[in-house]
Write a structure and sequence with these properties.
Elements lengths: L1 H23 L5 H21 L2 E2 L5 E2 L3 H30 L4 H20 L6 H31 L6 H69 L6 H29 L2 E2 L3 E4 H18 L2 E7 L4 E4 L1 H18 L4 E10 L2 E8 L6 H6 L14 H12 L3 E7 L3 E9 L7 E2 L1
Parallel strand pairs: 5-7
Antiparallel strand pairs: 1-2, 3-11, 4-6, 7-8, 8-10, 9-10
Helix pairs in contact: 1-2, 1-6, 2-3, 3-4, 4-5, 5-6, 6-7, 7-11, 8-9, 9-11
């Protein structure tokens, strides 16, 4: 008997695990949650009724009450009505002398169950476990009373001993405690994960807002100061033109920061096409060559033929040019910028290697963050936008660097990319 009831306990705990796997770990909506609870509780209840302990008089004993109550506690009225209908229908299908007794006890316990369920969500975890255990205990007290009454009236004696009733009630109560404890633990963990995510998002927003304000405030402060100087009549005309040029430069700087920020913050779906990676790299090199020459940097490339990719070519080119310029600017006294492209397994791999100043591990960890740059006048948005573009096509960027020896940016693009991607 105990082995069969423990099998019911295992069925209930496995169902609880599926609840965590299919809902809590997948961030389902409340409506889907009700459907899932109804389904899992119904399946669990049917399995408990299918594998019960049968007494010689034809009565069956199992842990059916636990999924029935759990569906009410965590799924609400809708789930409880569905599971109750499944319970009564399947119990009628099984037949036997205990059907009418089971239905009578169900109706008898319904007001108590509804009363406890109404305030269940407002209770603490300990109170929920105590309520569930008490309800199961009361339920089986009614079962025991009716069974003993029928045995004494019809048979004149009971086939079941006190140790049997103690075992079945104890297993039901402990299983109910374990189930509620596990579910409450999962829900608490789920809520904590949401809070952590919310906190991380708020922290990122605060950092972004502070960095953006800092980047905009500095040029505006300069413009404000020069405007005050221009209001003075004694400023020479040549000085005025100089101040106006500086103010225009600072205003352009503000506009550039805002434009780069908006291009990162507002992703949009764009039409894409298939293009050759090698040709796109050649175009990017052609655009950056004058800049490289002015910085005494030589650009070399090694590109495998027939590397096709489907995406927005303008965005990929923007990413490549950003990274090439970063590599050129990292070589303050000139050097070599090597660009390689090849296919490796399921990826198209693009390497941009410079012989510049390199970065420390701390600098690498902050790479791609908004407004972080190793350059004196950089905003960091170009690198951040590049990361955003590559992530938008389900790619990734790996960076290896050593201080004083240079940096290698490796871009991995999926070889079997789809025709439409999210780009920045």
């Amino acid at each position: 008997m105990i082995q069969i009831l423990l099998l019911n306990t295992l069925i209930i705990l496995v169902s609880t695990f599926f609840y965590q796997f299919f809902w809590l770990d997948k961030r389902r909506t409340p409506a889907t949650n009700h459907l899932l609870i109804s389904f899992l509780a119904s399946v669990t209840l049917v399995l408990c009724l299918t594998f019960p302990f049968r007494s010689q008089s034809g009565y069956i004993y199992d842990l059916r009450i636990i999924p029935l109550l759990i569906s009410f506690f965590y799924g609400g009225y809708r789930s409880f009505l569905v599971v109750s209908a499944v319970y009564l229908a399947y119990r009628f299908y099984l037949g036997g002398v205990g059907f009418y007794s089971s239905t009578f006890i169900f109706i008898l316990m319904l007001p108590i169950t509804v009363n406890i369920a109404l305030s269940y969500k407002k209770r603490t975890r300990k109170q929920k476990m105590m309520s569930g255990m008490a309800l199961v205990f009361i339920w089986y007290l009614f079962v025991m009373a009716i069974k003993l009454y029928r045995d004494m009236i019809i048979v004149g004696s009971s086939e079941l001993t006190i140790s049997f009733w103690a075992s079945i009630i104890l297993i039901n109560v402990i299983t109910m405690w374990m189930t509620i404890y596990w579910i409450e633990g999962m829900i608490e963990k789920h809520k904590m994960a949401i809070e952590v995510q919310r906190g991380e998002k708020m922290s990122a927003m605060n950092q972004l807002a502070a960095a953006l304000a800092h980047e905009v405030r500095n040029p505006l402060t300069a413009v404000h100061g020069f405007i005050q100087l221009l209001l003075k009549d004694e400023i020479p005309e040549e000085r005025r033109n100089e101040y106006l040029q500086i103010m225009l430069h600072e205003c352009n700087q503000v506009q550039a920061v805002i434009t780069e920020y908006l291009s990162w913050a507002k992703p949009q779906m764009e039409e894409t096409c298939q293009f050759d990676i090698g040709q796109l790299i050649d175009q990017s090199i052609h655009i950056t060559t004058p800049y490289a020459q002015s910085n005494n940097v030589e650009i070399r490339s090694t590109i495998e033929p027939s590397l096709s990719f489907t995406s927005n070519p303008c965005k990929i080119k923007q990413c490549l040019i950003n990274m090439m310029k970063n590599g050129i600017e990292a070589m303050k006294i000139g050097g070599l910028l090597q660009v390689n492209a090849r296919k490796m397994d399921d990826y198209l791999v693009i390497e941009i290697i410079d012989t510049g100043v390199g970065m420390t591990q701390a600098e690498l960890n902050r790479l791609g963050m908004p407004f972080y740059s190793t350059k004196e006048k950089g905003t960091g948005l170009g690198t951040m936008i590049s990361y955003r573009i590559i992530e938008g096509v389900n790619g990734k960027i790996n960076v290896k660097s050593e201080k004083g020896k240079g940096t290698c940016f490796t871009i991995f693009l999926p070889a079997d990319s789809s025709s439409t991607r999210l780009t920045s």
